[in-house]
Structure formats: C-alpha cells, structure tokens
Amino acid sequence: MGHVNTLFHQMLEVIPRPLVEKLSRKNQADHYVKHFTTWDHLVAMLFAQAAGKDSLRDLEAAFNSHSSQLYHLGVRPICRSTLSDANTRRTYQIFEQLYLQLLGRFQNLMPKRKFKFKNPLFAFDSTFIDLCLSVFPWAVFRKRKGAIKLHFRLNQDSILPSLLVITHGKTHDIKVASELAQDLQPDSIITFDKGYLDFKFLFSLTERGIFFVTRARADQGYVVAGQQPAPENKNIISDQIVLLTSPKSKEHYPQPLRLVTIWDPEKKRTWIFLTNNFKLAAATIAQIYKLRWQIEIFFKWIKNNLKIKSFLGTSKNAVMTQVWCAIIYYLILAYIRSQTRYAGSLHLLTEIVSVNLFQRISLLDILSWDKNHVHLPDPPDAAQLKLPLVI
Description:
alpha+beta; 10 strands
C-alpha cells in the first residue's frame, strides 16, 4: 500500500504541469522570473478558491502554515507582495487558455445528460459582478458603481461553461452573442432569454444551420403563414408558422419562424416561444427553454461557492486572473465528482474539500463521507485515488 498524499495534491494531479509550462512559454510568462512561476501562481490561486480566502494576507498566512507539505505540490511558501505583482503583470490569458485546454481534455470523459434529441444543446446568458468604483476605476458601470459582466455559453449535457467572455458591465448581451456562437457546429441548439432577441443575429444562426429557442416579445408584429400538426398535449395552445411584419425585423429575418404558445398549469401563465426549428415537438421546444434555467442555477452556485465577488487585486488583469482560476477550480470539482460517481451535491463537496486540503486522506474517503459524519478518521497508508487524465 502506498503513502497517501494530501487532498490538495491529489486534486492538482488532474492538471498536467507540462501543459502549464507550455502555456507559460507560449505567453513568455516566466521570463526573468526566478521563483514565482506560473505553476506557483496557479497553485496559490486555486488554494485561495478552495480555502475561501478573501485577502492576500489571509492567503499568505494560511498557505505558508503548510510549508512543510508544499514540496509535494512543487511550490514554495508565497509572499503576498510577489503574488500581488504576479496578479498584476502575468497575463490572465494563460489561465483562460489553460481552462479551455482542460475542458477539451475532460469533457469527453464526463457523463452526458440524455435528451429526446441528438442535437448538442447550449444556453447563453450573463451575470454581473459588482465592484467598488473607487477601488476598480477601470470597471465603470454607472456614475457611482463599477461592474464586470461574465457572458457564459453553458454546455447543457455536462453543465460546464464551454466559453466565457468577460466585459465591462455596460456591454449588452447581444454584442457578445456572435462571439459566444462563433464555433458552434450546424444542428446545435441554443436557448437564451429575450436579451438576445435580435433578428439580425438570429438570422445569422439560421444561415449557419444552428437552431435557437427563445421567448417572443409580447408586442412582436407577425402574420400567421401556416400551422404545425396539431399536438396531443392539451397545454399546447397553438403551434404556428409566422412571418415578421415590422419593416426592420422583416429585413433582418425574411424567412418563416415558429411560434409555440403553451399554458403552464403550475405557474398559471402562458409562455410564447420563438424558434427556427420546425421538426421537434412543441412540448420539446418548451422543455428546451425550461432547461435554460440550469444556467441560472450555475450562476447562483459560482457566486455562493467561488471567490468572484471579492478580489485579491484591483487591476483588470488581477480580476480576470481570479475569475479564470475560479472557473478552473469549478471544472476540477465537476470532473472529480463525475469520475468518482460522487452522489452528494457539489456544494457539499466544496465544503468538505475546503477544510481538508492538506489532510493526508484519499479522495475516495472524502467522497464516501456524508453530512451525517462529524469528522474524518485519520486513514492508514492506502492507495490513493488516481483520476484518468488525457495527455
């Protein structure tokens, strides 16, 4: 039986260090750096996420209190001034590129949710991160308020963000929509709210063979050009083929659209959906839009469990670095959860990990723990869990 390493070490094993070093060379991030390399930077920022540290001073004290165990991670004790300089000067694009590389390696290994259709399904949406304007003057949002905006493309079968664009708070969703959709394949389905209801953008999706499902505006002008086959579901009020009548809308989207009107008996209200998909059942169209709420749940989770509302630096680069490291940490947790078939919630896993980072206990023991336990036993030497890693 082998010696069990720390929990934090086992989590970091899913990140190939040669990949981090390759990205560092590509971005020339470690030129003239003697000690605090990109790997050191990444480990420190992931520790801040895992341990829930809000300040550089707290992070330095907590991290260095485990100095005798840091050699297992391939890092040294940190100095808060060095970390502050790195957050300001080392480009955040390294961590953005690392996330996308890890996502490409992990997503095929993760279990997929099954739908009634075979099309890839994505959701678009954005969320605000409020900032103090006097501390973050570059993040002007309103006269006395600062903010950044995180625009996500969420893969609905794995609940992983396949793309993230970070902008100023003033940026409208539709200005980022084309970037979120830029590499989607034909036959993909996107669902989004009325913030993306721009017919020039919607027609660009149709021309690429990409389907969308969104809500129609109450004042949208149209004429009925036909009817879809009558559905058996009694909650389907109508399923119509329509043409837009507004001169500007008709110019931007000259082709027919599908308008599905559904009665929701639970909420006692009517929903009107707009789509360019004429093949799926009306009830399936409604279900696709309902799945959009997964991205709202995702937003709530990251704001409650990740450190993206208080920052370790005030520069734009420092904020972007912390956001990307937070999303990398989310990806690591989601990957571990999927590979080990952990039955508990991601929130509970986060809480357990946060207080056991430098405990020498196997991930298998952590994942077999539940909220009814009061403490984790000190384990004997045992073979630790090895997660599959695609190199």
